[in-house]
Structures are given as structure tokens and as C-alpha cells.
Amino acid sequence: xxxxxxxxxxxxxxxxxxxxxxxxxxxxxxxxxxxxxxxxxxxxxxxxxxxxxxxxxxxxxxxxxxxxxxxxxxxxxxxxxxxxxxxxxxxxxxxxxxxxxxxxxxxxxxxxxxxxxxxxxxxxxxxxxxxxxxxxxxxxxxxxxxxxxxxxxxxxxxxxxxxxxxxxxxxxxxxxxxxxxxxxxxxxxxxxxxxxxxxxxxxxxxxxxxxxxxxxxxxxxxxxxxxxxxxxxxxxxxxxxxxxxxxxxxxxxxxxxxxxxxxxxxxxxxxxxxxxxxxxxxxxxxxxxxxxxxxxxxxxxxxxxxxxxxxxxxxxxxxxxxxxxxxxxxxxxxxxxxxxxxxxxxxxxxxxxxxxxxxxxxxxxxxxxxxxxxxxxxxxxxxxxxxxxxxxxxxxxxxxxxxxxxxxxxxxxxxxxxxxxxxxxxxxxxxxxxxxxxxxxxxxxxxxxx
Length: 450
Fold this sequence. Notes:
The protein is mostly helical. Helix content is about 65%, strand content about 0%. The chain has helices spanning about 25-65, 70-90, 105-115, 125-145, 150-175, 190-210, 215-235, 235-260, 265-285, 290-295, 305-315, 345, 355-390, 390-410, 420-435.
């Protein structure tokens, strides 16, 4: 395959023309379309149903004794899919679009930097093992998109996976005893359930845009079920982000379509507005930020997260530029700095409860600066999509905002085979493969609504 740099004004990944596609109308093309859903099935359904509760209990005990956790199922499930996607990619390589260095290049650069950080990781063997798994996931998804001639069909498979997940969790909630902090469904924690059903809500709502009777009937049942599960999970983070993301995604898409405002600018204006409101409330009512958070959420510490963030930032200050190595801070056995504290909550923590803080721990400021363009360019491309298809642009912006905000309070970015990070990569690739050309306004019409 010839790799070619494409100017920013040119198409990201132009539409794959069916008449040129070597796998058209074959089982191989259908298999390529199914691979992302098969990959996501592992963390979203298979692992939770078979091992989630058992592994969660066992992991806490192992961490407290200085033994790092590893999930064998992921290592069994993912490599065959990687090999399968690689083979399909090889068969279709002559028709694969060239890399767009302004988008895909940032993603590749982030992984290359993480690979370099393994050399100074606290436990290089663990860091390398986790990085290889992460690269295999990303490559599998990219190869599958390249080998499939209908990116929209990939999202349709994800949609049906969400429908199955929603109703399986409904059955679990109706038959299980809740934990002290809320129902967890088939997962090991209520926040996992909350995030999955919130994203399921978006996918079901998105599919309503087709206007097809089947999907309208599914939505009539599934959307109320999603809201019910959110309430039962008591996941304040996901419940709040569902409405915040939907509101901001709608505004961003409308501004992009009717005002031609860059989606990145809308995002920055929203951040400025939040800061202004915080300062205004403080000036008018004398309420500091911690008090405002307490009034909104009932807990100024975000369920103990602030203490974890302070601990994280203190250690990050020791290696601000290059970090501790890819996923080589938490859950690495006796070498873990958190284990040395002797504090129960910190000694069993497997992440900083902030995707951005964990990226900084993994690779310092350099890693964060390499990864942020991946998010910002995707937001900008959502604006382009909104100018051609307002509803699809709205839903893509909404889902992307959910990932961006969710990682302020939880860690899913670069967190192995976590369902939310796998899904983020699928949505990101869909945006990259279907965004219209800046110059001509052309796009791949085989979207999710197809």
C-alpha cells in the first residue's frame, strides 16, 4: 500500500466505491463489517456475564497484596479478531484510502510515544503487554473499517449489540439485589452500567432518524428502559452527562450548520461559559467552587475522587514531561506508587478516575498534547457532517462530548479493552471515514441511517 499525505482540505477517507471494492457481495466483506461488533461484544457482554462479579472481587484482594490483575479472556478473544481483520485488510489493501496525516497521524503519534515510554516504565514487561493489547485493538478496528465497504453497517451492528445489552441489563436489574450504592446490572459497578445505557440511549435515538417502523418500535421500548436503568443505577455522572452531552451536541451541530461556526469554537465557548458561571456565582453569592459542586452533586469530593486526583498530581509532578510509562503506575504489583501509601482506597485503585490525568501519568504532557488533537479534529469533523446531515451530526457530536466529559471523572481512554474506549475508537473511525470533503462537500452516503 502506498502511504500518501493528503492536504487538510482534502477528504479524510473518501467513500469506498462499491464497484472498485474487491470484497463486494462476499462473506469476507460481511465478516469485516461484523468484526468491530464482535470485538465490542467481549467487554460489553461476554466478560461481564462470565467473569465481571467474580473478577472484580478477586482483583481487589490481589491488588491489596501487590499482585497486578490481568484478564485472560481479553487475550484469548482479541488476537484472533486482529488476525482476521489483518487478513481482510491485506486482501483489500489496493483499494484502501491513504492516511490523512492531520487526523490519523495524531493517533499514530500518540501510540508511538507510548511505545517509547515503555523504555522507562516502572515495570516494562507489564507496560509492553498492555500496549500490545491496546495496539491490537486499534489496528483491528481500523483494518475492519478499511475492509468494509459500508461503515454505516458497522454502526448498525453496534446498535443491535446495544439493544441486546439494554434488555439483558433490564433482566439483571429486575432479578438482582442492589448494592448499597445502586444496581449494577451485569457489570461489576453501577457506573459501568450507567455509562453503557447512556450510550445505548444515544444509539437508539440515533437510529430513530431512519424513520423505519422497526427502529421506532424498538426506540419506543428501549429509550424508557435506558432512563429506568439510569435511575436504578444511581449513576449521577452518566445521568448528568446524558443531558449535558445531548444539549451541547445539539447546540454544536446547529451552530455548525446554520452559523458555520467551527465545532471546536463552540466547545471552547461552552468551557468559557462554565468558568464565567462559576466565577459569577462565587462573586454574587460568596460560594466557592467546592460549595457549588456540593450543592449540585451532594458531594464536594466527587465520591472521593478529589483525594485521588491530589495524589495523582503530586506524583505527576515528579515526571511531568514523559510520565511513568504506558499504564505503568496503577495496578503493577509491588512497584505501584499507590500501593506504598498503605491507604485502602489508594492501594486498590486501578486508575486516577480521570482519563486525562491517566494519559499524563502514562506519557506526561507530551502524551496529552498528542492526543488532544484527536478529540478536537473529530469534533470539527462532526460539524462538517452536521452541515450535510443535521441529525447525524447532532448524534455524533453528542456521543463525542459524552466521551470527552466522561473521562473527566472516569478513566476509559487507553484503558485496555474497556467497552467505552473500544466504542470511542469505533465512533472516531466512523467520523473519519464518513466526514464530508471540505472542498466539495461530498461524503460517504453509506451512513448509519442507511
